[in-house]
Structure formats: C-alpha cells, structure tokens
C-alpha cells in the first residue's frame, strides 16, 4: 500500500474514532433512568406542597423566591406564578379527594388573593392585577380560570361560575384575528396592549377556555379554543420566532388533553406528535447527563422547568389514550424516567433549588408534573 493511501486510511480511522467518541458522550450516551412506578412520586409531591403551604402568608400570598445561602426571601412577586401555584394545590386536592384540608385551605387563600385583585375590564370581563392600576396579564387570568375550574371539579361548588365567565370574557377579548393572544390588558386605555404577545399566554388561554367549554358546554367557549389551536399548530412558532420548533408548550399540551374527545383535526394531531417528540427528547437529553456526558449536556433544568416537561407529557398521554389515529409513542416511559429524576433532585426541605435559589413555580410545576406521572390526566377531571 502506498504511504499516501495508508495515511489517508489512518486519518479517516481517527475521524471515525473521534466521531464515535463524540456521539458516545452526546446523542448516543446511555440513559440513566431510576426505577419508578406510579405512586412513587407522592412523598415528593407532599413535601413540595408542604413547602408552599407552610411558607404562605395568612393573606394568601406565597413565598415567591427564596435564597438558602442567605436564608432569606428575595424581593418581587409574579401574579401569574401565584395563579399557577394555586392551580397545583387544587390539582393535588382533586387527587386526594379533598381530604388534605391544609392544601385545600391554602389553595382557597391563594384564590382569594387573586380575586381580591380582580379589576373590571369591561364587557363583563375581569382579571387580577398585581397593582391597583397595573396591567392585567392574560396568563394570570387564564390560570386563575384554570384554578377555579379545578376547584369546581373538586367541590362541585358553582358559586364562582360568574367569576369564571368574567375571566373567560377577558380572554376572548384578548384574542387576535389569527387566533393568537395578546399578553396585557391596560387599565389606562381600557383595552388590550396591541402587538405584544407571549410565548406562554396563548397556550394558557387555550387550556382555560377549553376547561370553560367542559364546564359550560353549549355556551360557545370552544370557538376561541379552536382558533387558538389552529394558530398553535400552524403559525405560532414561525410568527413569534420560537426556535427550535415546536416551542415546548405544556399549556398547549394540557389543552390538547382537554380536547382529546372533541374530534381534533389532522394538523392538530401532527402538532401533538411534534410536541411529544420535543418533550421526549428533553427527558432523554437530561437522562444522558451522567459521567463524561455532563461535559456536553447542559445542567438539569430547575424544578419548574423540568416539571413543565412532565406536565406536557401527561396532557399528551391522555390524548394518545383517546385518539386511535396517533401512532404509539413512549410517553409513559418518558414520564416515569423524568419523574424519577425530578423526585431525586428535591431538597430535604421540600423545595427544588437551582443555584441555591427556589421560586414558588419550582414547586408548582414539579408537583403538577409528578401528579401527571402518578395519576395521569384525571387530576383535570378526566378519568382513565
């Protein structure tokens, strides 16, 4: 063999060795998924809920952000995350059939905090605002509505039906002709803030309005939901510059689960498949983050971020169970792998910390995600 050819073979062999080694610590790295069975997450769920309950103020406000290095709360508050924290407590209460009175009472205190801050947005609408003359965020209104819908499922109490309809009317008023949602309603102008969208608010509104249709069929709440879902399935990622697509929107997945028996169209199911692939890849990538692969893989997401992945998979799992047109997908496998890893990451005090800091939404999303792994979508009133 000529020396030149021999050197070429050696060079190519070296390239293949380097490539194989790179793949071994990136895409082809082995997964580490601790053993997990439904119910295994309950201790972590209870501890996370206990953190929210015991740090709540008597007036209903949650401890928003805490730094354990200085053993002190950090300033600031986010009303969308307050509404989300309330939602997670009601979800847990549904699974526990209302027997944990501390959780129910804390959720009701959190709900009262929201309703006390509700402002009239005209045309029979309303939405909570953090400041008396501050803007109403679409996401706050949507998750307040979701929380009230869960409370209604839990208690059978219809005394907040007027508030639910008022929140729904605000959301409908925030919708754009293409189906997307504006992010703010401004009390100074008495109108939505034009041209400002949110990557979260559209999916949140879809789920809230879908739950409205489930609670009040025949009132037309499904009409804006279909428009939102068309937008999410066909336009949102490109129009809003969300990359790489699809945006891992657990709120949209919740909405798809709620709509599982509505007769979704093929483009909605294609969107659901893309979402399932994205969430599954995110679990796989984290599960590969062991040993040498820690060099090439990003750190584990904070509890809030990881919990959203499980929430998304849980909503989609219910859709898969009810839609024969969808091909088999390893949603349950991904859910349980992620749940095991998330439960292991919990601190002894019940919180999930990232760089020694935790926020209420770290507990919120972790609780909701683990509930999905343990109980499925029946926490939204859907029975398996």
Describe the protein in words:
The chain is mainly α and 384 residues long. It is built from 14 helices and 8 strands. It has helices at 3-24, 42-54, 79-95, 101-115, 138-155, 161-173, 201-215, 222-234, 236-239, 250-258, 266-287, 303-322, 331-344, 360-375, and strands spanning 65-67, 72-73, 118-122, 125-128, 136-137, 184-186, 191-192, 357-359. It has a 3-stranded antiparallel sheet. The chain has a 3-stranded antiparallel sheet with strand order 5-6-7. A hairpin with a 4-residue loop joins strand 1 and strand 2. Helix 8 packs across helix 11 and helix 13 crosses helix 14 (360-375). The longest helix has 22 residues, at 3-24.
What descriptive keywords fit this protein?
3-stranded antiparallel β-sheet; 384 residues; 8 strands
Rounded to the nearest angstrom, the radius of gyration is: 22 Å
Distance between the termini: 67 Å
Name the helicity range. 40-55%
Please list the strands of the largest sheet in the order they lie side by side: 2-1-8
Note the overall shape. globular
Mean of all residue-level pLDDT scores: 92
Biggest sheet details: 3 strands, antiparallel
Structural class: mainly alpha
Element string (H = helix, E = strand): HHEEHHEEEHHEEHHHHHHHEH
Low-confidence stretches are 17-27
Number of strands: 8
Count of alpha/pi helices: 14
Residue share in β-strands: 5-15%
């Amino acid at each position: 063999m000529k020396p030149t050819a021999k050197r070429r073979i050696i060079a190519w062999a070296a390239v293949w060795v380097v490539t194989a080694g790179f793949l071994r610590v990136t895409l082809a790295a082995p997964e580490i998924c601790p053993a997990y069975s439904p119910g295994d997450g309950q201790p972590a769920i209870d501890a996370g809920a206990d953190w929210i309950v015991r740090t709540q103020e008597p007036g209903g406000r949650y401890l928003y952000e805490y730094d354990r290095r200085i053993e002190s709360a950090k300033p600031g508050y986010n009303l969308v995350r307050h509404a989300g924290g309330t939602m997670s407590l009601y979800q847990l209460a549904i699974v526990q059939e209302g027997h944990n009175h501390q959780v129910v009472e804390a959720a009701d205190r959190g709900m009262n905090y929201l309703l006390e801050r509700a402002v009239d947005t005209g045309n029979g609408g309303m939405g909570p605002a953090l400041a008396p003359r501050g803007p109403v965020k679409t996401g706050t209104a949507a998750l307040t509505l979701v929380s009230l819908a869960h409370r209604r499922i839990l208690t059978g109490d219809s005394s907040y039906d007027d508030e639910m309809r008022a929140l729904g009317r605000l959301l409908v008023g925030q919708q754009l002709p293409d189906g997307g949602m504006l992010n703010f309603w401004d009390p100074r102008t008495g109108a939505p803030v034009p041209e400002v969208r949110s990557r979260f608010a559209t999916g949140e509104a879809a789920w809230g309005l879908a739950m409205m249709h489930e609670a009040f069929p025949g009132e037309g709440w499904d009409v804006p939901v279909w428009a939102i879902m068309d937008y999410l399935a066909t336009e949102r990622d490109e129009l809003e510059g969300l990359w790489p697509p699809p945006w891992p929107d657990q709120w949209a997945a919740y909405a798809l689960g709620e709509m599982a028996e509505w007769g979704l169209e093929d483009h909605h199911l294609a969107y659901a498949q893309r979402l399932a692939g994205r969430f599954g890849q995110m679990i796989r990538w984290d599960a590969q983050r062991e040993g040498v692969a820690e060099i090439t893989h990003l750190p584990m997401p904070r509890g809030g971020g990881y919990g959203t992945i499980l929430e998304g998979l849980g909503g989609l799992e219910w859709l898969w169970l009810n839609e024969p047109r969808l091909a088999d997908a390893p949603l349950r496998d991904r859910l349980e792998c992620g749940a095991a890893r998330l439960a292991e990451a919990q601190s002894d005090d019940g919180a999930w910390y990232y760089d020694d800091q935790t926020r209420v939404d770290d507990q919120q999303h972790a609780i909701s995600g683990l509930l999905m792994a343990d109980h499925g979508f029946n926490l939204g009133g859907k029975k398996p």
